[in-house]
Amino acid sequence: MDYLPTDGHIEPSAAYMGQGPGGGNIDLDSINGGPLGLNIRVEGMMHTFSVNPPKFELESYIANYTGRTRYNRLYVIGTCSTYLAVEALKAAIAEAKSGKDVTRYERAARALAEVAPNDPEATLDTHWVDHMQKVVKAETDRLEHELKGYKNNLIKESIRMGNEDLGQHYYLIGDLTSASKAYSRMRDYCTTPTHIVSMLFKIITVAIERGDWLSVQSNVHRLRNLQSKQDEQSKVQPKLSTALGLSQLHSGAYLDAANSFLSTDPGLGDSYTEVLTSNDVAVYGGLCALASMDRHELQRRVLDNNSFRNFLELEPQIRRAIAFFCNSKFRSCLEILEAYKADYLLDIHLQRHVHTLFTRIRTKSIQQYLIPFNRVTLDSMSKMFAPGTLTGADSRGGGQQQSDPDTDLTSPFVQELVALIQDGTLDARIDLEMKVLVANQVDLRTELQETVLDDLEDYLREAHIRLLRTNIIRAGLEVRADDKPREMRGKRSDGFGSATLSRGAGLFQ
Amino acid sequence: MAESVEHIISLSSHLRSQGLLSENDYQCRVQELVAILRRPSHSLLSESVLTDLSPHEHTLPYLFVLLYQIDLARSRARSALPDDIKPGGRLWFPAVQFLGDFKGPQVRFAGHEWRQLVNIILDAAEGDPKAVLAVRVLSDAIMRLDQNVCHFSSLHARFLRLCLLSQSYSYALPVLDRHTSSIHTSLEQPARGGNGYLLASNSDANDCIAEAPGISPRLTHKDVAQYYLYGAMIYMALKEWDKALHWLSVVISLPVVNSVSKVMIEAFKKWVLVGLLRHGKLVTAPKIISSHVMKIYQAVARPYLSLADAFEKSDEQRLRTEADLGKSVWCADLNSGLVRQLFQAYDMFLVLKLCRVFSALTTKDIAGRAASSGLDSPAKIEKLIAFLVMSGVLEARLLQRPCDRSFSMLRLPKSTQPYYCSRSRIRVGLVTKSHALKVLTYHSQECNNELKIGRENIDLLVRCQGWSGVTGKGSSKGSIDHAAFGVDEDIMGDLS
After folding, report:
1. Which residue of A has its CA nearest to B495?
2. Using CA atoms, how far apart are residues A500 and A507, in angstroms rounded to an integer?
3. pLDDT tens, A331-356?
4. A501/B188 CB distance under 8 A
5. Which example biological process does GO assign this protein (chain B) (predicted)?
6. How far apart are CA B432 and CA B430, in angstroms?
7. A4, A62, A218, B107: least CB-packed within 10 angstroms?
């Protein structure tokens, strides 16, 4: 572990860079472009979800957060919502100006210029920019110089603090790569467990902002494995579970994410506002659980969970949605979620997963709804799940409307059902004559026998091929390029093979 | 010299009373007779013998006389294939008579000559428009000779080729079907004896390796590959896709040392297409194919794979463009017939896919879903569905409506077959499969024994070599079993 300082600084960062793309972490692509690349790609969705005004008050919402995440959240809202765009972007500009990150200010100003070109704040305050750039430059130079001095003196604690200051500075000016490098360099100089804990937390915070979820996970595990005192543990635990939950949410492991959020201690309070609030824990955990657990599990692990109840009380609509789902009132559950969709789409962490989560919840509701039925009329189903559309409502009596079934087959709800059946999620079939969905009845005995026959067939084929192969190899008849006797080749080179092939194949023309 | 003829005939008549002779005695006599016949002095056997003798009773003399006469005719006409031998010629009839009537056990001792005769007939038939005349005779002959043992030879491949050329596929079926059900384990024989064709069962193989090596050509990997490719093509012509697919996968999974043969590549192309026709998707290749071989296949058969991709993704438009783009390729590979059948299969799989989703729908609905393909009118779809139902692919009922004839309702009950029907079908399936399993187990055990990895052998080895853990007193049966099983696994594992 006797790394030279320079080695220590290059190595971990290289590892992070390598991990990112391997884990499918798209956010890393835009690290160099500035902080938080993840917002950029969502802009295209703007029109789809800005229809409903969000239910929250921007000011009180953002007041819950501290640190850099304030700007990031404001920027996401500003670029994604048409209702709050100007307000949010103005707040973002103010937020950026109070800090030292010049690029953030420029981006917010540019975004505001797109939304409201005539606003006085939309023009770039070049004076402030120049001034701030100079200040930042001077500060960077000073800190690096100081660090060099500490290194020459070889005092471990000073080097650690020097790196910490430098990391903090880089973090504030938005150079996240350098920040995580600087923090990682602290590792060799940490002398007490408290130092290590604080260093790892700093790395995690930077990694969350970078969107480097693999690094979040590995550092969380590192923290977990540290031995520390009981009271410290209880302080660290909630932050750890939320960070882990976030990384799992972003990698699409919704069940794991739900478990992490559910195990978060209510002691979290507002101690982690630079990343997320308790409200967020409730929303993230609730949605992930809804999307990945069955009714029984939801009841047992979410609603009856004493510690998570504290979170749920902050977001009563989530609790209601889960309760409705558990009571098989899918319509109400979906309606609640639909109503809050706009809010969730403006959440910095949730927005990319809302669509997937909602589809999963919906699919699960349809599945659960069908369990007790042998056959269900499409009518009642569409009333439950697609109240907006009409699917041949008058056709039940076999009346006039039945001659016009196109509306049924082409209606989005039926299309959705068709897709679900085709990918095997629903084990049912649609009867367009009677307008019902019929559950497939499985004749277990026949099915078993059929599978046995199929397996036998497969086995026989495989064994035949292998046995034949053994025999062929034993006879020395493997295909090889150039081992035939010369006269043999002469004999066969009269186009024996090809001529026959051609004539034989001609049979099918 | 007339005595000699008499002598031969009397010797051969003795053989008739096969039942009275002991196995050894019988063999000795046959060998004696073959030895006499092979001597060049029997040139006096005149053509009249062919009319006088019955090929059933005097199999061996008849065979030799026939060959001699064919030789004479050849030297007279100074060509390898004089008119006399061609179908309808002077010697054709006796040859056919012989092949239809010979005695298998005797011919086994004169395998070389028998093979020569069959080759001559194959040669004669191949270029002839009346090739079908030869096919039936040869099919019978091969079946009769192989009654107990099915030794593979290059003759088999040539015979299948003749069947393909003369378009008389069903005559090949007895030969093909037997080879699929019983796996021939005798491929090692040529390598061991250096002979191409051994007309003997394993037990007396040593008795009849009398022929000089080198006279009959050695089997090559090409023979094996061609045999299975031709077999698959015959099944394709008969539209038995399952069997065709299996035979093709045999070809593409042949063991390779350093290169892939052209036959295998042709087989792979056909395998892709047949997989689409049978299952509607690109079938997973046998696991036994090593990855580098697979890479070669994929590189060479790219147009086929992209065609399969379009088919799999139900992209009608792309399928058509791919098929058009690759026209020259299909023509060059002579697969355009198969490619053309893809469209029919595409429609079929489209309908089948819908039928898994719906339990009742109108032909109009199907027409709406399949609008891009050729199936745009309800009437066409009705025709297709009627065909599918009749051929047993689809279990469904069409209901025409009395008031409105423009479309009809398609109902797909879970099963239209009565319960006992499906049960008896499964029963038959189980019985046939269990028989096939028995055969397979037998052959694999035999193979184990020949490779000296039978249970007894392993047991012996364990004892002799004093392997740790199982030696000494009370070596537990279980552990030996385990050892044997381990080696078993190895042998059946990837050998490439």
Report:
1. A470
2. 11
3. 899 989 988 888 888 888 888 899 99
4. no
5. ubiquitin-dependent protein catabolic process
6. 6
7. A4
